[in-house]
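User: Structure tokens for both sequences below?

Assistant:
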Amino acid sequence: MLKKALMLVSGNAFGSALLLLRNLIVARLISPEDYGIAATFAISMSLVEMLSYLGLNQMIVVDKDGDDEHMQNALQGFQLLRGIFSSTVLFLIAVPYARFLDIEHVAWAYQVIALIPLISGLQHYDMHRLKRHLKFGPSVIAQAVPPLVSVLALWPLALIFDDYRIMLVALLVQAVALVALSHLTAERRYRLQFDIAIMRSATKFGWPLLLNGILLFGVFNGERLIVGRELGMGQLAIFSMAMTLTLTPTLVLAGACQSLFLPQLSGALDKPGSFRWLGVASIEAGLAIGLLLILGVVLLGGPLVHLLLGDKYLPILNILVPIAVVQAIRVMKSGSSTVALAKKMSGNSAVSNLFRVISLPVSWVALIQTGEVMMVIYIAMAAEVLGYLVSVYLVVKRTELTLSPLIVPSVVAALTCIAALVSDWNYPPEPHLGPHLQHGSMWLVVACGLTSLALMSNLRGYLIRTLLRRER
């Protein structure tokens, strides 16, 4: 199991690192204003994805009939219908979306991006089905190779374009590569079927995930839209890059943890004791990911930004630690969402994300009145704290998990977040490592974070058992 976990983490990390590398290369090649426009491409795709996301790739893992070939074919047919719908919506909203951001001259680019959901709709679902049997190879390949192809395409694209069009074509290349690899790594023949009963069942399973997708759009992109509209593409580039740098590692590790824990939790549904133990370990894993992000940003954030992006993106250092805290609290909810999903309680994530979405109008008004991005960040932070508390409460109540092992690690994790913010107020990240390491408040953050990690007894026990099982 440890070997599979390492494969998941390394595969996801490799793919996400390549996507981050692509973004960094593009940011180096073009102006911040053009990078701000490029950042809106991802927002537009997220906008249509949220309108049709039903978690079909998760359903084929957790449903008792997920191995049935007819069901897989029907889900693939449903996925194609989703792609057609999403492409149509994206094409229709391209001009209004560009007008909203005051960049109407690039509306044509959003119409071109409308091809991506259609391409993605042709994806083969074998790579998802095989996760039921803890065979993660095809999905890891499909996650890692397309970003590599996208990165390799940047060199010829840079010879042709010198603006946001580099990112536009790179996204198309990645979508085509993903679909191609999903077919090349499949064991079954690709077929499409359209079964109304399975579509109805998938919709019943996925409507809470659809709702959560709408909420996640607000979580990941709401503040970006607000900043882009009110402060312009240059400020959006700074804000979006800070979000990307802190979001990428959390998505990698949270995705790997879900892929690792979800099949095991589903397999332990008829063993209440094992399920409760694994559930607490899953929640502690989410906490651990958030803490690792904070420690990494506090220790190395400033020098990494300077190394990767150069002087033109140094304003990121003014907001990097607070945004990292927001992302850390957000990812701390991922463990409880995985536990709830194993019980087919897919609405748990939606409820926990609702607070962040509700906070968006408040953030918008605050930004208009103050012109300060930090107000947006602090409001998002408060919303994520409420979301975390509610997510843990709901999963404990609905799945009968034991809350007591989580209390002390959660409290110390909260102290770590507070210490990081206090340290940032007094000593913001610096582009050079030497002076930064001399601040005592930074080492208090490290001490709190390591203490919280040490207190996660179920996660520690899970890792030890996995190691012992591997040695046998």
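Moving on to the next sequence.
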Amino acid sequence: MGDQITLGASDFVKVNITNSKTESVVFEKKFPKDISVADLKNKLEILTGGCAATMQVELYNGDNLVCKLDNNDALVGSFPIEDGMRFHVIDNFQLFTETVEKFDLTEEQYNQKEDSLRSFLKKNKLGKYNEEEMKKIEEKRREAAEEEARKAAECKVGLRCQVTTKNQPRRRGVIMFNGEVEGKKGVLIGVKFDEPLGVNDGSLEGKRYFECEPKYGSFVTPAAVEVGDFPPEETGLEDEI
């Protein structure tokens, strides 16, 4: 009899799940990292009503595409996946069959079908048919929106700040802009850094929002900004070649 392997907490990942047919349906599920992409698709088939043989799975961090899980033999843990990310299931077969059914059936007839995706979700109380889960998701969204609004209100133009973002050193500077940016969601904070640690000059996609030297400006979310009496750091970057 072979040895049993016990998975620790770090060997699992908790992610949200959406699909190309019902973008508003989000599940939060935990998966072991040592299963193959093929096994993952079988599990996602049960959750989304898609077909494991035809579905495509994409990994997102927020709205940013991280990668596509296009190797069925690869292990889930071999991809750069972290808790809180999202699997997005794309299934053309599902979209095609549901479109045909709804074209041929009235809404009342479709609601009465026992083999439809809607019926499956209702029976298993998944997605928008899980009232308790949807309340939790809505509460998290509300709390996140309130926190973002609170942080944004603190980011007044002219104040000193410190910016902390993933894979970047902490950067200090002055808040130059607070508002909506064309083509982006939500409120963004424009910061002029003390050193050339930014990515722009206060403009984005040809539209100017504030003035600064090239590589001194960036737009970040309110959550990344800490307002305070942060004196300029002398790093000597301007003297480097």
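User: Anything stand out in the second?

Assistant: The CA atoms of residues 199 and 215 lie 5 Å apart.
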